[in-house]
Amino acid sequence: MGLFLLYALAILLTLWASAALYIDLRIPSVKHLAGISYAVLVIFLAARASTHLQRMLICAAAFALVLIWWLHLKPSNDRPWQPDVANTPWAEIQGDHITLHNFRFCHYRAEFDYTCDWLTKSLDLSQLRGVDLAITYWGSPYIAHPILSFWFGDDQYVAASIETRKEAGEGYSAILGFFRQYELIYVFADERDLIRLRTNYRKDEEVYLFHTTAGPEWARQLFLEYLQRANRLRTHPKWYNALTRNCTTVIFHSMADIGRLPPGTSLHNWHVILNGRGDEMLYQGGNLEGSLPFPELKESAHINAAAREAGDSPDFSRRIRLGRPGFEFLETGDADTKIH
User: Among candidates 284, 258, 290, which has minimal Cα distance to 269?
Assistant: First the structure.
């Protein structure tokens, strides 16, 4: 059994290294040949070895060489980007006053037919009252994309999404996401951009919106952490990775860095990887508003129909929240005074 596991590990390492060369080598004319040649060479040398230990060492040494090369691949902010990620956001922070640059507002005619405005937005941290969570599904119930929406009162929301920064003509691939194909980007945008894109224009995406129990101080610290991380990415880009640095793990690492992990959560909880069940983990920890059993709360949080009805209305954000458990304060007139 031990030998079987060792050989299985050696095969996996060889396959990964071969795929890394095939996918991430920046010389198109030789990348395909390099991936295949690596696998053939390792198999050839291992077959000629006389002991199990020698075979393991050959596989490990070859893998280590590829890994060292792979870890030294550098991300960049200088590529021909798609229009919706053409600019990176950054912020000037002066006490409670925030000047957020490259705040995105894309006007959609269809999913891939849009024009984007890049705005400068002034925000007052003293008005920040809480955080809402939107979760988007497009297939498996175990995989989703979270968007945090920071509530500044008076129906003013700053939606924040951590995404892959794709080049023109490039699509997202879950397989490529495990390699060094995409840079990471923070998108700060109007909800009529980030959320309406997913409810009104993309096919087969379902969006659920929850009001969290996060109070003003918690929201303030996380929002500042987001801004500081976005500022660093503007000068020091990082790779996206579907396993270790993705739309969900970055959120949880941000919360851990400020000492604000929600009750009942952990960086090592399986819900962080299979993030489609993350809302259930948050609910069990008491982090979602709404006094309903979780299945009923989630059903009531489905906003696609309300978003389509709201369309491009200026009160889009209010209309997708009205009548939902956890957002009762919007109907009772307590929105201006509600403090968790």
Answer: 284
Using CB atoms within 10 Å of the CB of residue 267, give its burial: 0 to 12 exposed, 13 to 18 middle, 19+ buried.
exposed
| Same domain? 22 vs 149 | no
Q: Does residue 193 sit in the same domain as residue 222?
A: yes
Question: Does one domain contain both 305 and 254?
Answer: yes
For the chain, first and last CA: distance in Å?
A: 55
If pLDDT is split at 50, 70 and 90, which confidence band does 26 have? Answer: confident
pTM: 0.92
32 plus 115 within the same structural domain: no
In a domain, 77, yes or no: no
Within this chain, do residues 207 and 316 fall inside the same structural domain, yes or no?
yes
Give 334's pLDDT tier (boundaries 50, 70, 90): low
Distance CA 39, CA 23 (A): 14
Sequence-ordered list of residues with C-beta below 8 angstroms from that of 116, at least 6 positions apart, any chain: 83, 84, 86, 104, 105, 106, 107
Residue 329 CA to residue 322 CA, distance in Å, equals: 9
Same domain, 20 and 168: no
Instruction: From 19, 42, 71, give the residue that closes a domain.
Output: 71
The percentage of residues in the chain with a pLDDT greater than 90, rounded to a whole number, is 92
Res 340 pLDDT > 70:
no
Does residue 337 lie within any of the structural domains? no
> Residue length, the chain?
340
132: domain range? 83-332
Helix ranges (H only) for the chain are 2-24, 28-48, 52-71, 191-196, 216-235, 249-257, 270-273, 278-284, 294-300, 304-310, 316-319, 329-332
**Do 197 and 111 form a contact (C-beta atoms < 8 A)?**
yes
Could you give the number of structural domains in the chain? Answer: 2
pLDDT at 150 over 90: yes
Mean pLDDT of 271-288: 95
The band of 339, judged by pLDDT with boundaries at 50, 70 and 90, is very low
Strand partners, 186: 162
pLDDT tier, 155 (very low <50, low <70, confident <90, very high otherwise):
confident
